[in-house]
Automatic annotation (TrEMBL):
Matches recorded under InterPro entries: ARM-type_fold (IPR016024), DNA_alkylation (IPR014825), HEAT_type_2 (IPR021133)
Domain of life: Bacteria
Organism expressing this protein natively: [Eubacterium] hominis
One Pfam family from the record: DNA_alkylation
Name of the protein described by the UniProt record: DNA alkylation repair protein
Gene3D superfamilies with a match to the protein in the record: ARM repeat domains
Length: 358
């Protein structure tokens, strides 16, 4: 099993880093810093909280002059791959030293992504920060261009919320327009994720925008497909039509069945089916599983199976396995579950099965 990222901050490596700081600032108190970081609550903290703990501890041990502290830190963090707390330090102590902080984040985002840190600057002065991020869309570094998009995502996972962009995402759109043909896949993925975020609160805005984007550049078309994934999963008719998915009146599902209708947690659900159409048609095949939650209620998770152009009269056969092994992101519970086949956004057939403990 992969070691949790929060464990990158080992006392031995942090001590080495502290002595590096001391080499650039003879007044830096190594033992005091380590004592502040590794206090009685350290073991209870997750990754972001540990970064914040390190930032605050650095603030107590470095010079109170922000420029001096940044100069020391920027020299010291070079070569330390775990220094992801550096942008957090800028967020905590640099909001009132705008010009210094923005240059630091721009210089260092390729080493320690600054998408979390810039959100505090957006909240402090949205117009000023979004103007800066628009400038970043033309930067020579793909890391900085990505920061322009990733930093203003309305629903960035683990990031500080930006409520005004959930309410009105229009200030984000010039950023996305500027990056919609970016050569770097790294940047295009961020643009797509930003669009997907927006689609969850303002679906029609995204649909209307995608209608003006589609078919003009293959890089943009890639963004559209990935940026509309939530709308596709919801079977939004306008998006389905935009991608050429038609009504499935002449599509037929045959022999849809489970290998067994009772499985134990840790086993695999195996299902199979045939699909045939009376006409040539482009189809998107998905399946949804209504998982039992801890409170006994159900929540459907949709999985993409295939996209294919199906010729009239040609039959395709599918066999799929779905693991019911507990993981760090999904815990399974006993009870009656439902498996549903979804074609072009339309739920077609469903089968029930029981999940039990061995």
């Amino acid at each position: 099993m992969m070691e949790p990222l929060k464990n990158m901050f080992q006392e031995e490596t942090m001590r080495k880093f502290a002595y590096t700081l001391h080499s650039y600032d003879e007044d830096f108190q190594v033992e005091r810093f380590l004592k502040l970081v590794f206090d009685e609550e350290w073991e209870t903290l997750e990754l972001k909280a540990r970064c914040r703990k390190i930032s605050i501890s650095l603030g107590k041990c470095l010079p109170s002059n922000y420029q001096m502290a940044i100069d020391i830190l920027e020299k010291a963090v070079s070569g330390y791959s775990f220094a992801i707390f550096f942008p957090d330090f800028v967020e905590v102590f640099g909001l009132d030293d705008w010009d210094i902080s923005i240059k630091v984040l721009e210089r260092n985002t390729q080493y320690w992504s600054s998408e979390f840190a810039v959100r505090a600057f957006i909240l402090k002065d949205e117009k000023r920060m979004m103007k800066q991020m628009l400038v970043w869309t033309t930067h020579e570094s793909e890391h900085v261009r990505r920061l322009a998009s990733e930093g203003c995502r309305p629903m960035l996972p683990w990031g500080q919320s930006i409520p005004q962009f959930k309410k009105d995402p229009s200030p984000i759109l010039p950023i996305l327009e500027a990056l919609k043909k970016d050569d770097a896949l790294y940047v295009r993925k961020s643009v797509a994720n930003n669009l997907n975020d927006i689609s969850k609160t303002h679906p029609q805005l995204v649909i209307d925008l995608m209608k003006t984007w589609i078919g003009k550049d293959e890089r943009t078309d890639w963004i559209i497909k990935h940026g509309c994934r939530s709308l596709l999963k919801k079977g939004n008719l306008e998006i389905m039509q935009l991608f050429g998915y038609q009504a499935i009146n002449q599509v037929h599902i045959k022999e849809f069945h489970l290998e067994k209708d009772t499985i134990a947690i840790g086993e695999e659900l195996v299902f199979m089916f045939d699909i045939v159409s009376d006409q040539d048609i482009k189809i998107r095949i998905e399946y949804g599983i209504d998982y039992i939650k801890a409170n006994g209620k159900t929540n459907q998770k949709i999985f993409k199976l295939s996209e294919v152009s199906l010729k009239a009269g040609k039959q395709l056969s599918y066999v799929r396995k779905q693991s019911f092994k507990d993981t760090s992101v999904r815990k399974h519970y006993t009870g009656k579950h439902t498996l549903t086949l979804i074609i072009n956004g339309t739920a077609c057939q469903s089968l029930a099965f029981d999940v039990i403990k061995t």
